[in-house]
Automatic annotation (TrEMBL):
Residues 1-11 have a biased composition (Polar residues). PANTHER family: FAD_NAD(P)-BINDING DOMAIN-CONTAINING PROTEIN-RELATED (PTHR43539:SF24), FLAVIN-BINDING MONOOXYGENASE-LIKE PROTEIN (AFU_ORTHOLOGUE AFUA_4G09220) (PTHR43539). This is FAD/NAD(P)-binding domain-containing protein. Pfam families: Pyr_redox_3. One of its GO terms (molecular function) is monooxygenase activity. InterPro entries: Auxin_biosynth/cation_transpt, FAD/NAD-bd_sf. It comes from Coleophoma crateriformis. The lineage of its organism: Eukaryota, Fungi, Dikarya, Ascomycota, Pezizomycotina.
Length: 612
């Protein structure tokens, strides 16, 4: 399908995700499971008391007494140790790790109302589930525990999955400035009483006689959330972004872009979306919200600002960063010395541009999807080829067709497709109007990746059966979808590939009906003056070719901005490591630099905020 520009860089910076271990559910017990709250709380209390006693006495060899014999998991984010994100599998591995590294956690307690539920979609593995809180040597934390009857140990209640993550540091808590502890006035007492809140914000933002502790590069969701979390802890942040206005990374995308997942899943901390917003907010609603988010939370954002140079000083443990701000028309350079840099430029690097033989002969327009601002009435009758069958490819094909274009989609491999309403119903039990997003995020994060994959596969099979008429019609139209038995979890596709799927918002029926044509599984041979020619000799006429071919890895941005020394010191970004943790993101690279990636959403971003 043509060669990829700069293939050596792509290969070097994007190693494949580590294979996810295939696991089975634990053996199900036939013993009854309590449903009454008092009994559930007593069972959990007894088990956690025994667990805490082992931690207190440091008798780690006894941990198997409270862990399910057949299989068990402890997923931990800065709870057991100060720096490590880890997923421990099996009682032996958990015991070995705690024995070698110790455990900062001193005690765990059930939180909120525990419940009786099922661990698997088929409702065969019964468990008791509870949110938890814990106290550690350095702070307090939250988590989730699932306990089941151990069929290999007389049906005793044991821990099957345990998730712990650090939430607050001792002596440093966002609770100190929230709610009942909020400040009385909008500006500090030591600020001139002749000046108002706007004066204070503008002066604070300039950092004239002050230094930011953290420089956040990128003002998208992750950059804003990371800065917001840190500012609530009293950590001074400066956010920089190349765009002219806050939210432009959404505002400047193609005309009809909207969220593909419900707004509950995209909530930002401290400041929820309006209650009357649609489930799938438009790009301009999101852009406007992000712009005001900066104002509402007093964040320090410099737009139209880039990094000219950056140097790490190991002796002083500070960066020297030269910034260039063009927001006033003429460039202004300033030098800053932050202790930390957070790269929040998004998951992707520059557009991935295939090169085609004969491209210079083609008389029409060729451009990447990132440069597509939207179809117009002038598209009527235009012959458009969209190369790529992910979310962007479908969106662009759909809207070009709505404006009268004759669209052909080029699909190289198979695509996982799920209906919009089907996906909403699948996620609605967790993300909805009643459940706090932070609780829903916690439940999602609590599951070890191997179990997420197994449960996700079973859920996808249920979704496949629901969407079968649509999927069969797509196959008949020549569009290749993922079929059993290899159905993936859409969450796993997002975590390992950051793509490979389409949540249908209207394009699939057009493909199924033939209104949008498909060229599937054929490599592109070359371009002629008026068409795209494939290796089987077939060709499709085109006035415009839109390349929805994705992006190269984010480390390319790191290399361009910070140089080879920084980029080479950082592990691959995204995908799964050997323990099942997300690679590279919200981790502090403290061996050589105080440099972090923040390609994450609310809960991991909060963890990043807890790392100082």
């Amino acid at each position: 399908m043509g060669s990829i520009a700069n293939p050596s860089t792509w290969a070097r910076d994007n190693e494949p995700s580590h294979p996810i271990q295939k696991v089975d559910y634990p053996k199900a017990s036939s013993a009854p499971v309590p449903t009454e709250g008092t009994e559930i709380r007593q069972i959990l209390s007894n088990l956690l008391h025994n667990f805490n006693d082992i931690l207190f006495r440091k008798e780690f060899v006894k941990l198997p007494e409270v862990l399910n014999t057949e299989s068990c998991y402890w997923k931990d984010h800065i709870g057991i140790t100060e720096t490590k994100f880890t997923t421990l599998t099996g009682a032996a591995r958990i015991t070995e790790f705690i024995h070698e590294n110790g455990c900062l956690i001193k005690s765990i307690a059930a939180d909120k109302d525990p419940k009786s539920t099922s661990f698997d979609p088929a409702d065969t593995v019964k468990c008791l589930q509870s949110f938890i809180t814990f106290d550690s040597e350095i702070g307090t934390g939250r988590g989730l525990v699932n306990i089941i009857r151990d069929v290999d140990d007389g049906d005793r209640w044991k821990i099957y999955t345990l998730f712990t993550f650090l939430y607050d540091l001792h002596g440093v808590s966002e609770r100190d400035v929230l709610g009942e502890n909020r400040a009385q006035y909008s500006r500090p007492d030591n600020f001139s009483k002749e000046k108002n809140w706007k004066d204070y914000v503008e002066e604070k933002k300039r950092f004239v006689d002050d230094e930011p502790t953290v420089l956040v590069v990128g003002a998208g969701h992750c950059g804003l959330m990371a800065a917001a979390r840190l500012e609530m802890l009293g950590v001074k942040c400066l956010i920089i972004d190349l765009q002219k206005r806050g939210g432009d990374m959404w505002r400047n995308r193609y005309h009809n872009l909207c969220l593909h997942d419900p707004c509950w899943m995209n909530k930002m901390p401290y400041f929820p979306y309006p209650a009357n917003w649609p489930l799938f907010a438009s790009k301009d609603q999101i852009a406007g919200f992000m712009e005001y988010y900066v104002t509402a939370l007093d964040l320090n954002l410099w737009n139209q600002t880039s990094i000219i140079s950056s140097t790490w000083n190991a002796e002083t443990a500070h960066w020297t960063v030269v910034l260039e701000n063009r927001s006033t028309g003429s460039p202004v350079r300033t030098t800053h010395h932050p202790r930390h840099i957070v790269q929040a430029t998004g998951l992707n690097g520059p557009p991935r541009i295939p090169s085609f033989q004969g491209a210079s002969d083609f008389q029409g327009k060729i451009h990447h999807s990132s440069a597509f601002s939207g179809a117009t009435p002038q598209y009527a009758g235009r012959k458009v080829i969209v190369v790529g069958a992910g979310n962007s490819g479908h969106d662009i094909a759909y809207h070009a067709h709505l404006h009268g274009a004759r669209v052909t989609m080029v699909q190289r491999s198979e695509t996982y497709v799920v209906g919009h309403s089907t996906m909403i119903n699948a996620f609605k039990s967790r993300y909805n109007e009643q459940t706090h997003t932070e609780d829903a995020d916690l439940i999602s994060a609590a599951m070890p990746i191997s179990l997420t994959s197994r449960i996700g596969h079973d859920v996808s099979l249920m979704l496949y059966r629901h969407d079968l008429p649509l999927l069969e019609s797509l196959q008949k139209a020549g569009f290749k979808t993922v079929t059993p038995p290899d159905l993936p979890s859409i969450l796993i596709l997002a975590q390992t590939r950051a793509g490979g799927f389409y949540v249908d918002i209207g394009c699939s029926p057009l493909i199924a009906s033939g209104a949008i044509k498909v060229h599937q599984g054929r490599n592109i041979s070359h371009l002629s003056a008026t068409s795209m020619v494939f290796d089987d000799g077939s060709e499709v006429e085109a006035d415009e070719i839109i390349l929805a071919t994705g992006y190269v890895g984010v480390k390319v941005r790191t290399r361009e901005t910070f140089g080879d020394k920084v980029a080479d010191s950082i592990e691959t970004i995204w995908g799964i490591d050997e323990e099942g943790e997300q690679r590279g993101v919200y981790k502090r690279y403290c061996s050589n630099f105080s440099f972090l990636f923040s390609d994450c959403l609310d809960r991991p971003s909060k963890l990043l905020g807890r790392s100082w």
